[in-house]
Design a protein that fits this description.
- By secondary structure, the protein is an alpha+beta fold.
- The protein has three helices and eight strands.
- The chain has an eight-stranded antiparallel sheet with strand order 1-2-3-4-5-6-7-8, covered by helices on one side.
- A hairpin with a 5-residue loop joins β3 and β4.
- About 8% of the residues have low confidence.
Length: 145
């Protein structure tokens, strides 16, 4: 009987330590608070560890896919939003429409926001077998990356 009690105590201790020492579980509230402050409309958020980062995935209020990345201290690192053409700001649509790729088909649009870097859009365009990534700053300036 004494051995069973010791075994139960050890197993309970292992469960307790494992639950509270897990950095993902221990910091999940911090990540969720940060996400709620930055993206209050985020619903059905899925969290996963990606290398040295925690990544939140959800659909925004326009039903667009959003990925938000945080470091282990719950500092925001970057956001990637897969956008619909109609949700692009007018000056970004005009930059595309006035570009040499205006007749190309848009396959995908991403809006990238990073800490300490100007935000930009990436339009994946294609024409037949040709594919190109068109980078546009938030100000509507096309650039190479």
């Amino acid at each position: 009987m004494n051995k069973k009690l010791i075994l139960r105590t050890v197993l309970a201790g292992m469960f307790f330590v494992g639950f509270f020492v897990n950095p993902v579980a221990a910091q999940s509230d911090i990540y969720q608070i940060e996400l709620a402050e930055r993206y209050s409309a985020a619903k059905n958020v899925k969290w996963e560890k990606e290398g040295d980062y925690m990544k939140a995935e959800f659909l925004d209020e326009f039903n667009q896919e959003v990925e938000v990345w945080y470091d282990w201290n719950a500092n925001w690192v970057r956001t990637k939003t897969e956008m619909f053409f109609n949700n692009l700001p007018d000056h970004i649509r005009k930059a595309y429409q006035n570009s040499p790729y205006a007749q190309w088909k848009i396959d995908d649009i991403e809006f990238i926001q990073k800490v300490d870097e100007e935000s930009y859009y990436i339009l994946d365009v294609e024409k037949g077998e040709q594919e190109y990534k068109l980078y546009i700053t938030e100000k509507g300036v096309i650039f190479q990356k």
